[in-house]
């Protein structure tokens, strides 16, 4: 058996989950709190006791290209994080492409402020980021031990500078997307793996850091950024489906992609859609089903890795003093609007899972606050009591996590970049009802109340003229925003005029 075939056994996993289920207690069902644009619905649990540690720990798990509905196939993660913490049901990656999304997580800033607008080119990749403005320094300067394990920003290589704030730095540097032939920086001692599975290696190295840090007695912050379920790219440039760990390669063979049940799947007429969706041929159902199966298979190792890191925290006696956060860098379209991929401003690409458990977090709860990846660094700072060392564009979610009513922005900036010109493509805004964007000549507007699947672009519908004008004013205000100006409450928006808005056919 190959080395990467060795993993936690199914029997041990059952014992692990059963044991960890006793960590938290269950209370009476709660009610609902509402303030401004915030509505938090409490589940069947109660708030955990406040941490006794002056500086709680933080573990941040990130996946790559994971759809929100993929979480339905990760039972360990759901049991240990969603059931024991809070699930944000309307979380998005507002710049849904790997490198810009990760730069937002590294800085707490939108691309107009951190400089990373694309995966590559003059305005993209790791080269576009100032490594001195990376949030790990906040924790280092506040007495935390810090460790990074896994995939960092696109283009990061073995000769690139190590961001200053990490006590341990174990990033993928070669074969980043290969899964089985790759190199890790090894905290200064690079190591190449040719017969290992990348998720298992990230899992093992994450747990080593957790054990060492927990035994030191110092507070710690550990980032475990996984590759799955991103498609595979070999060092030679070949592209294929993400490989599964051996014990998972017979799973989900007949799984029906959730996308097949979306009215937007292989949309009959995309001529009204923005340029990046227009004139696409219908997606192959066979290919989509195969990709869906491979993606779900690859996520099973991540699911086990979440279980083992929670087990490690419990074994070391620090679970009750540790926040565990789980999300993805962006979503992924599997044939909605005929499109397969990301880097488009549709909800399939924008929407991401977001789970948080930890001291004081309301257990078994959900929140529909419109959270984004940009909010996470501000939230991490608030939860750990550290001070950001530069202006951040996100808003802390800490009050919501504690079950408190929290006024929140009513309009969120969304955007995509390009490799040429000024580095910008479509930029727009998302509200509870509308999704709007333009690149100056190519625009879209979806009324998600009447058209939740975004199959009808009403940007040229006269009934929506006033709506479009109002959303354009908000867009112009936000594309240059920084700090608090990214988190405004603009107030109510108009509805379509005259009651003559088109409604898509069922």
Automatic annotation (TrEMBL):
This is Sulfatase N-terminal domain-containing protein. Residues 56-386 form the Sulfatase N-terminal domain. Keywords: Signal. SUPFAM superfamilies: Alkaline phosphatase-like. The lineage of its organism: Bacteria, Bacillati, Actinomycetota, Actinomycetes, Propionibacteriales. It comes from the Bacteria. Residues 1-29 form the signal peptide.
């Amino acid at each position: 058996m190959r080395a990467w075939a060795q993993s936690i056994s199914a029997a041990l996993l059952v014992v692990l989950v059963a044991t960890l289920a006793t960590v938290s207690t269950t209370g009476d069902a709660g009610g609902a709190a509402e303030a401004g644009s915030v509505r938090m619905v409490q589940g069947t649990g109660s708030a955990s006791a406040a941490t006794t540690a002056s500086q709680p720990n933080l573990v941040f798990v990130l996946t790559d290209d994971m759809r929100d509905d993929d979480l339905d196939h990760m039972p360990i993660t759901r049991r240990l994080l969603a059931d024991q913490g809070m699930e944000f049901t309307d979380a998005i990656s507002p710049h849904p492409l790997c490198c810009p999304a990760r730069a937002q997580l590294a800085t707490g800033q939108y691309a107009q402020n951190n400089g990373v607008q694309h995966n590559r080119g003059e305005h993209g990749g790791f080269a576009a980021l100032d490594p001195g403005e990376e949030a790990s320094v906040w924790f280092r300067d506040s007495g935390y031990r810090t460790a990074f394990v896994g995939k960092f920003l696109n283009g990061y290589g073995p000769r690139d500078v190590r961001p200053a704030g990490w006590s341990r730095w174990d990033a993928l540097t070669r074969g980043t997307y290969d899964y089985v032939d790759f190199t890790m920086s090894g905290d200064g001692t690079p190591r190449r793996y040719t017969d290992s599975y990348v998720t298992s290696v990230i899992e093992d190295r994450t747990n080593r850091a957790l054990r060492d840090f927990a035994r030191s007695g110092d507070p710690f912050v550990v980032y475990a950024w996984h590759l799955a379920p991103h498609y595979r790219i070999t060092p030679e440039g070949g592209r294929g489906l993400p490989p599964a760990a051996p014990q998972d390669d017979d799973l989900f063979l007949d799984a029906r992609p959730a996308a097949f049940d979306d009215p937007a799947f292989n949309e009959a007429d995309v001529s009204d859609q923005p340029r990046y969706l227009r004139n696409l041929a219908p997606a192959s159902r066979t290919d989509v089903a195969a990709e869906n199966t491979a993606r779900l298979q690859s996520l099973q190792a991540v699911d086990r890795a979440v279980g083992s890191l929670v087990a490690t925290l419990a074994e070391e006696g620090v679970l009750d003093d540790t926040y565990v956060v789980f999300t993805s860098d962006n979503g992924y379209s599997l044939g909605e609007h005929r499109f397969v991929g990301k880097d488009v401003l549709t909800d399939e690409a924008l929407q991401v899972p977001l789970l948080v458990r930890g001291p004081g977090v309301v257990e078994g709860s959900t929140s529909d606050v419109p959270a984004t990846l940009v909010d996470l660094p501000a939230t991490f700072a608030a939860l750990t009591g550290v001070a950001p060392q530069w202006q951040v564009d996100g808003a802390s979610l800490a009050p919501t996590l504690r079950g408190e009513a929290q006024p929140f922005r009513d309009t969120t900036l969304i955007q995509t970049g390009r490799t040429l010109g000024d580095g910008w493509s479509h930029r727009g805004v998302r509200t509870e009802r509308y999704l709007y964007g333009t690149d100056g000549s190519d625009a879209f507007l979806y009324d998600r109340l009447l058209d939740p699947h975004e199959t009808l672009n009403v940007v040229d519908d006269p009934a929506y003229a006033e709506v479009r004008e109002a959303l354009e004013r908000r867009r112009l205000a936000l594309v240059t925003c920084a700090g608090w100006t990214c988190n405004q409450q603009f107030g109510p928006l108009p509805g379509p005029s005259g009651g003559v808005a088109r409604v898509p056919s069922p």
